[in-house]
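User: Teach me something about this protein's shape.
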Amino acid sequence: YPAGEGDHPVSGVSWYEAAAYCNWLTERWRAEEVITAGEVVRLPTQTEWEAAARGGQPAPADDAVDYPWRGPFEPWRTNTEESDLGQTTPVHMYPDGRTPGSVWDMSGNVWEWMSDPHKQVAGAYDLKGGAYYWEASRARASAAVWSYADLGSDLPGFRVVVVPISRTP
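Assistant: First, the predicted structure itself:
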């Protein structure tokens, strides 16, 4: 995130760094009894991420309304290229872009690493959510891009899920 702006999403993280953070956080939270020995912190799968972005609802028949707020794109709901800000914004800046279950920033701001490897490119992983420098259509729940796991650049960030070990791919 930008220097001195701790309320912005973390970005510039490789897939390996994101996965290592999940491993570290698993051990820390187990030691602090935040999670049990039967749980793990990891990157979400695409299926889990899309379920969260859609508030647990199925994909809409019309892809043009596949945004976390379950409606058409409106630039005041998320930080995409249409915002014309040219940088990340603080988490919670777009309350009207939340999912019905109040999950914030599932659309725009920074791309998020998935735990799923890309199906067609070895050494690559998928990213979801769009970013401040990509057009709105890339911020739909159905949209994804990929990047090589060792690239951090300014592109990717991540979010984590806590799941039972049995749900670890």
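Now, about its shape. The radius of gyration is 16 Å. The CA atoms of residues 126 and 146 lie 4 Å apart. If you'd like, I can walk through any region in more detail.
User: That's plenty for now, thanks!
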